[in-house]
Amino acid sequence: MSHVYIAVAGNIGVGKTSLVERMCRHFAWQPIYEAVAHHPYLEDYYRDMPRWGFHSQIYFLTMKLRQQQAIAASAQSCCQDRSIYEDAEIFARSLADQDILSARDFETYTLLYESIVGTVPRPNLLIYLRASVPTLAERIVSRGRTSEKGISLAYLERLNVRYEQWIAGFGHCPVLVLPADQLDFVHNVADLTQVFDQVTRALAPRLDLPPMA
Cβ(9)–Cβ(83) under 8 Å? Predict the structure, then answer.
């Protein structure tokens, strides 16, 4: 089996981590999780986005660069919770659109991002989990992270709009879009099996497998 690098993309609360966990168990991949639990700015950021937005985005980008370096150095197949592209194209750009990131800070961030992104490996497949704001809000509440209590529905909606614009023009690698509103891959085995089948089909050329009937 060939080495593969998968990234799972989507809005806050859509189920990226849960899907990464299950795919890695099923396919025997190495999971690579987003550095949220130890993020030193996240609670401050949700309380005061203009004050801490730049700090938060630089931290996320730094952690993503470390992940990308580890992926490039490894011969093991892996699945990443949120791609490096989202840090810039979704979150930093959304903050700049709202003037939460100043023009000066966004320019500095963008220069750093562009210097990094051309030097790191591209995924063999990007899985985009698409969900409505009510679904996202319900899942955020159910997982009960203290740092996420201040997330507003308007913020989730802005991110959703940005995600749809981004994925429509994404060209770094093949994309598999999954309707997360209709798929409960955490509690429904049939839904999870359906996801595994779609991922296998999408990766068939890379894995030297015949497409599933």
Answer: yes
The residue among 21, 29, 12 whose CA lies nearest residue 200 is 29
Q: Is residue 212 part of a domain?
A: no
Give the position of tokens 């700090």. Answer: 55
- The amino acid at residue 178 is L
* Residue ranges with strand state E in 41-193: 78-81, 125-130, 175-179
Domain containing residue 175: CATH number: 3.40.50.300
Residue keyed to tokens 């992940």: 67
pLDDT at residue 147, as a whole number? 65
Structural domains counted in the chain: 1
Distances (CA, A) of 75 to 3, 8, 18: 7, 19, 24
93 assigned to some structural domain: yes
> Taking residues 92-110, what's their average pLDDT?
94
Q: Which domain holds residue 105?
A: 5-207
Active site residues: 81
Q: Quick count: other Cβ atoms within 10 Å of Cβ 37?
A: 9
Q: What is the pLDDT of residues 119-168, one digit of tens each?
A: 999 999 999 999 999 999 988 887 777 767 778 898 899 999 999 999 99
Enter the pTM of the model. Answer: 0.87
In-domain check, residue 113: yes
